């Protein structure tokens, strides 16, 4: 698939084959020009976000490789009935089994208890430190509820807004073979200047309690809300995954507001281009064009489509990407003119291996570059640090540095799902596809670094 979709302008030359010297020289020249050119573009993009920095950024420490060791507990006589059902009585438990088993001795490793909360009010010496997987409180002292979320940087208020699913209700199964779920409560919004101290702005799009035919009726599904602002209409537009309890509606929903803190007015849902759409995200490019990216054809491929000028619908154009690769949870970002995307595999609430993808044009072709996760240990890397991607946000003032945002789903109690936010950088040669390593362009590696505890450079904040 990768080969078929290569642009014809790409310079093919495998490591083992013969290449003409002039071609090699020209591709190097082109590469240098491209880097030069794109560094100018980048400079211009970032000029708009005012960043406050007390001292020169030290991003290198964010890239330190940190190990994470844990001992698998010895086999036990008693396990929860759910765990036995999942893997049968005999097979020795894997780390993922332990993760999914709410009675596991490792539970506190994955879901540390209330004593270790990240608390912006009583943070003390831990102020500004991210602890992936710990409970995270807002400025009122309540756990943050913004799952499957995304950030919006609002230039008017020079503030970050974090939107996500409010899952502050009981977890249950709608029927015997149904997935674990929480009723639709609504989309929460939090605001921050430093990405660490979050103020609750309330539920900006509530679920519907009574009207059973409404898309947001509480027994339906609302996932992965994302918000962007339209520069022309000035409206804040929210896109989200809308479904029924059995995930057969497979649609996208659209809501709109004149303020980042809502209230959002729900407009409608549809199957984009007539296709099923489950996990999705939206991406606003530097030129003001925005795109919808959604898992389709039963999650076997992704589709990408430009939104209309007002962002309230998809345009006619649609491309299929990553065909047959069964990816979901897409998170897009752009660095030096190249588009990148992180996706997960499709294993329900259970964690799996992330993949990074890259493209010259957002409409594709997209190439797969391998697992971005660095550090931790092998199990951590093969499970995206026991989490699933949801968003990647650039860090103004720190070129090439991003925040990777993921959800550590707590299958037994979805309201207690945790956030795994880690530094992401773009740089160095990609692991795959090796067959193009002499070609043009050479993708840069996307790396997400495991840290048990980390912080942004001192004094980093917007405005
Ligand atoms: C903060 O750190 C200092 C020096 O390590 C220590 O003396 C102090 O007790 C700590 N305070 C808190 C609240 O942990
Ligand atoms: C219930 O929701 C549907 C779909 O949004 C709408 O057409 C209908 O008017 C609503 N009914 C009431 C009583 O609000
Ligand atoms: C979901 O599936 C279950 C089991 O097949 C069925 O009983 C139920 O009516 C379905 N619900 C909806 C809303 O489709």
TrEMBL record:
Residues 65-96 are annotated as: Disordered. It comes from the Eukaryota. Keywords: Glycosidase, Hydrolase, Membrane, Transmembrane, Transmembrane helix. One of its GO terms (molecular function) is hydrolase activity, hydrolyzing O-glycosyl compounds. Pfam families: Glyco_hydro_43. The keyword Transmembrane helix applies. The chain crosses the membrane at residues 21-39. InterPro entries: Glyco_hydro_43, Glyco_hydro_beta-prop_sf. One of its GO terms (biological process) is carbohydrate metabolic process. Gene3D superfamilies: Glycosyl hydrolase domain, family 43. Residues 76-90 have a biased composition (Basic residues). Belongs to the glycosyl hydrolase 43 family. This is Uncharacterized protein. It comes from Acorus gramineus.
């Amino acid at each position: 698939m990768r080969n078929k979709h290569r642009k014809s302008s790409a310079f093919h030359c495998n490591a083992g084959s013969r290449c003409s010297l002039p071609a090699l020289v020209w591709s190097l020249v082109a590469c240098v020009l491209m880097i030069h050119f794109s560094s100018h573009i980048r400079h211009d993009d970032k000029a708009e976000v005012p960043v406050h920095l007390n001292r020169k950024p030290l991003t290198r420490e964010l890239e330190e490789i940190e190990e994470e060791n844990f001992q698998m507990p010895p086999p036990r006589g008693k396990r929860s009935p759910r765990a036995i059902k999942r893997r049968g009585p005999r097979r020795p438990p894997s780390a993922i089994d332990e993760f999914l088993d709410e009675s596991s001795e490792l539970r506190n490793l994955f879901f540390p208890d209330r004593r270790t909360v990240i608390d912006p009010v009583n943070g003390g010496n831990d102020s500004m430190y991210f602890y992936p997987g710990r409970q995270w409180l807002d400025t009122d002292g309540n756990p943050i509820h913004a799952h499957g979320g995304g950030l919006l940087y609002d230039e008017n208020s020079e503030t970050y807004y974090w939107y996500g699913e409010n899952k502050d209700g009981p977890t249950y199964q709608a029927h015997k073979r149904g997935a674990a779920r929480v009723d639709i409560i609504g989309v929460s919004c939090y605001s921050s200047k430093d990405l660490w101290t979050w103020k609750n702005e309330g539920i900006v799009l509530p679920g519907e309690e009574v009207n059973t035919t409404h898309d947001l009726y509480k027994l339906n599904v609302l996932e992965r809300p994302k918000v962007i602002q339209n520069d022309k209409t000035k409206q804040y537009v929210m896109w989200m995954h809308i479904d029924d309890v059995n995930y057969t509606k497979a649609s996208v929903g659209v809501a709109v507001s004149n303020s980042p803190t809502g209230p959002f007015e729900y407009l409608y849902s549809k199957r984009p281009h007539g296709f099923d759409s489950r996990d999705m995200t939206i991406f606003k490019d530097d030129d003001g064009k925005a795109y919808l990216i959604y898992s389709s054809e039963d999650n076997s491929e992704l589709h990408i489509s430009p939104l209309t000028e007002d962002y309230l619908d998809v345009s006619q154009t649609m491309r299929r990407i990553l065909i047959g690769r069964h990816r979901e949870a897409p998170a897009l970002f752009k660095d030096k003119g190249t588009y990148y995307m992180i996706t997960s595999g499709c294993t329900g609430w259970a964690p799996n291996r992330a993949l990074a993808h890259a493209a010259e044009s957002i409409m594709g072709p997209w190439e797969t570059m391998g697992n971005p996760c660095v550090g931790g240990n092998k199990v951590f890397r093969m499970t995206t640090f026991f989490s699933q991607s949801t968003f990647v946000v650039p860090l103004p003032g720190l070129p090439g540095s991003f925040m990777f945002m993921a959800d550590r789903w707590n299958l037994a109690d979805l309201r207690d799902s945790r956030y795994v936010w880690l530094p992401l950088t773009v740089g160095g040669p990609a692991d795959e596809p090796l067959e193009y390593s002499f070609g043009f362009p050479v993708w840069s590696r996307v790396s997400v670094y495991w840290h048990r505890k980390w912080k942004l450079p001192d004094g980093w904040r917007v405005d």
